[in-house]
Every structure is written in structure tokens, then in C-alpha cells.
Design a protein that fits this description.
The chain has about 375 residues and is α/β, with parallel strands linked by helices. It folds into two domains: about 200 residues, Glycogen Phosphorylase B (Rossmann fold, 3-Layer(aba) Sandwich), CATH 3.40.50.2000; about 170 residues, 3-Layer(aba) Sandwich (Rossmann fold). The protein has 17 helices and 13 strands. Helix 10 links the parallel strand 9 and strand 10. About 5% of the residues have low confidence.
């Protein structure tokens, strides 16, 4: 049975999505596929590796328009479906099943495995990044078709599986539980590059500037923390998705503008330095059910305080402090404890390293490929010994 794995080329500037694809790509190259299976990579970018590759062209505006029109006609739908570039590449590769390891899964006319990072448009539909300009309807329609047709759906936590069941009636026996892998770069024993203007003590939060990432509550928490005598600053790493200006204004109104750093998107070496010198990572996002930065922090020996959203405790266990992301004073209390409690920090670092080590990319890939191989009799029933 041939498994085609879709690995699109992504811009490093998108953050966690790029890191996730990078880690899965590395793990696939090093894995041993289950007996009776072979792998082929489908990609829209040139690349090298030991696995065979088939290129496809990324969908353009014209093709997306044709797909919208095709929804009104079964005949047109079949014609346009066959023209899907990923599906065409999979058929060229003679694949029996297609796995989309990223959040960009698509419903195609071959057996496929979808990976779902979140369904935030359902859990937090009021945020503009999932609702404006028709985005909510587009995400909901595509998710409904995707999850209804998928052979298997990969998610990282039981909390995520429960959300899939509640919102889209995905049966639990079609869900593959595979926790996010810790990025391999965080394990490398190399030096980082200092970030200009940043001095200890400081708290770190690497996240794109979306409303749901909740930077505003963190800035308010810093003001509370500093009002109690701390000199700590806050480093907010990430690209601006439209709210940075308002965050700067908030910091000014609270009198902490000089203590909030906005270095933008930074190289990985600089991010490594921030993790290894920060008092702690504070992750106040309103939703998960999983996130990569806490795993990076665990691997690099940085204590973590995380918002207590569904899935957080399942992902991070006893290796993090937890707080209500709507309560800035609760966040500030975590800052107080982490800045003054050396023993607490040491305990969290030790527990975090153990979790990071247990979440290698190989474990993620093996879990998904194993689940696909277990369905071989349904995917490829005409092969001997299926």
C-alpha cells in the first residue's frame, strides 16, 4: 500500500505551521514505514530527500472559483475534483491513501487522512481572524465536508477529539490521537544570539499578533506584576496580524511601554537565546487544544505558565502553571511565583524536559502511519494479505 504525504512549502514567517511541517518532514525521512507500506511525498516546492517526490501546482484563483461553481452540479463536481492538483499528483504517484499532516487538509476523491490543529471558528467564532470577510462560513463548510469524508482524523488531545465530536459528529474510532511533536531544533546543543535591548529579568511570549492570542491580558498582567516591585519586562515575538498598534497604545496607557519589547519575527538563534534566558514562557492564548511554544520551552529549559483552556493540562501535565486567560491578576500571580521561586522553576524545568523528550517527531509519525496501516484492508482490499 502506498501512502502519499502532502508537505506544502511554507513561509517560515507563519510561525508554528512552518515548524510543524519541518518536523514532520524530518521524521518521515528517518522513519521505517509499517510492513507492507511505502511512502511518497507530494509537494509544491523542489526538495531533496530519500523518499520519492511528486510535484503539484498550488491551486490558483481560477481553480478555486471553478470548485465553488461545481458545488451546484454533481457532474461538474466530479470533473473539478479530478482536476485538484494534489489529487492529480496522488494518482500520478499511484497512491492508495493521502495523508495531510498539516492544518491545510483537503477533501479529495481518494481515501485521505486529515490533520486538525483546531476548530477555533467553532470554539471562538467571534474573533475577527476566523469570522471576517466570509471566513467563518468558508471554514465551516470546508471543515464539514473534510471531516465527514476523512478516513481518519488526526488530533493531539482527547479535548480536541471531543470538540470534533461535538461540532462535527466525528466518531471517536475515526480519530487518531497523536500529540504535537517537540521541534527538533529545540534539542540542538548550539548557542543562541542575544536580542538587542532585552535584559533579564523578562518574560517571553512568541505568537503572531492575532486577537485570540490574548497579548492584551499579558500586558495588563505585566503592569500588575511591576506594580508589586518587579523590574521584569515582556518580550512579544511575532508578526503583526493587525493588533500590534493597539497593543502599543495599551502598554503606553498602563505606563509599561518601555518594558514591552516588540522585536517582530526573529531568527531561530535569537528565539533560542530568549527561551534560555527568560524567567518563563507565559502563554495566555484563549484556545488550543495544543500549541508548540510550550514544547519548545520545555526542551530548552524554560519554565512555562499556560492558559487553562481545554486540552492544555492534557498536553502539558504537571510541567506548567495554569491561569484563567481572562484574568490579568491571575497571570500576574504566576509571574510573581516564577520570578521569586527558584525551586518552583527547577521543578517545572525538570518535568518539562521529560515531556519534551517523550514527544519526538518519530512518535507522531509512527502513530499516524500505524493507524493508516491498520485500515489497509479497507483502503487497499485487492492487494494480497491486505
Amino acid at each position: 500500500m502506498r501512502i502519499a504525504v502532502v508537505l506544502p512549502g511554507l513561509d517560515p514567517g507563519i510561525g508554528g505551521g512552518f515548524t510543524f511541517v519541518e518536523e514532520i518532514s524530518r521524521a518521515l525521512e528517518q522513519c521505517t514505514p509499517p510492513a507492507g507500506t511505502e511512502l511518497v511525498i507530494l509537494t509544491d516546492r523542489p526538495g531533496k530527500g530519500s523518499l520519492p517526490r511528486v510535484r503539484y501546482r498550488a491551486e490558483g484563483t481560477v481553480h478555486r472559483a471553478r470548485r465553488r461553481v461545481a458545488k451546484s452540479s454533481q457532474r461538474l463536481s466530479r470533473m473539478v475534483g479530478r482536476a485538484n492538483p494534489i489529487e492529480a499528483a496522488a494518482r500520478k504517484a499511484e497512491a492508495h491513501v493521502v495523508w495531510f499532516p498539516t492544518g491545510g487538509s483537503e477533501a479529495i476523491d481518494l481515501p485521505f487522512v486529515a490533520t486538525v490543529w483546531d476548530i477555533q471558528h467553532r470554539t471562538h467564532p467571534w474573533f475577527p481572524e476566523v469570522s471576517e470577510h466570509g471566513l467563518w462560513r468558508a471554514r465551516d463548510e470546508s471543515s464539514r465536508e473534510l471531516l465527514s469524508r476523512a478516513l481518519l482524523v488526526v488530533c493531539g488531545t482527547e479535548a480536541g477529539a471531543a470538540e470534533l465530536d461535538r461540532c462535527y459528529q466525528v466518531p471517536r474510532d475515526r480519530v487518531v490521537l497523536a500529540p504535537h511533536p517537540t521541534p527538533a531544533w529545540a534539542f540542538a546543543d548550539v548557542a543562541g544570539d542575544a536580542v538587542d535591548g532585552v535584559k533579564a529579568p523578562f518574560f517571553l511570549y512568541p505568537a503572531q499578533f492575532w486577537a485570540h492570542k490574548n497579548h492584551a491580558t499579558l500586558i495588563r498582567a505585566l503592569a500588575f506584576h511591576r506594580s508589586r516591585g518587579s523590574r521584569a519586562s515582556l518580550v512579544l515575538v511575532g508578526g503583526d496580524m493587525g493588533v500590534r498598534k493597539r497593543l502599543v497604545e495599551l502598554a503606553m496607557s498602563l505606563g509599561v511601554r518601555d518594558a514591552v519589547h516588540f522585536p517582530g519575527f526573529i531568527p531561530r538563534a535569537a528565539l533560542r537565546w530568549l527561551y534560555t534566558h527568560a524567567t518563563a514562557l507565559i502563554y495566555p492564548a484563549f484556545s488550543g487544544p495544543e500549541n508548540l511554544p510550550p514544547l519548545e520551552a520545555f526542551a530548552l529549559g524554560c519554565p512555562v505558565a499556560n492558559a487553562d483552556f481545554p486540552g492544555a493540562r492534557e498536553q502539558l501535565g504537571e510541567a506548567a502553571l495554569y491561569f484563567d486567560p481572562e484574568n490579568a491578576d491571575a497571570v500576574a500571580e504566576c509571574m510573581d511565583r516564577l520570578e521569586s521561586g527558584e525551586d518552583l522553576r527547577d521543578e517545572l524545568i525538570e518535568a518539562g524536559r521529560a515531556i519534551a523528550e517523550s514527544r519526538r517527531g518519530a512518535a507522531f509519525v509512527d502513530a499516524v502511519l500505524g493507524a493508516i496501516a491498520a485500515r489497509r484492508a479497507m483502503i487497499d482490499p485487492f492487494t494480497p494479505d491486505a
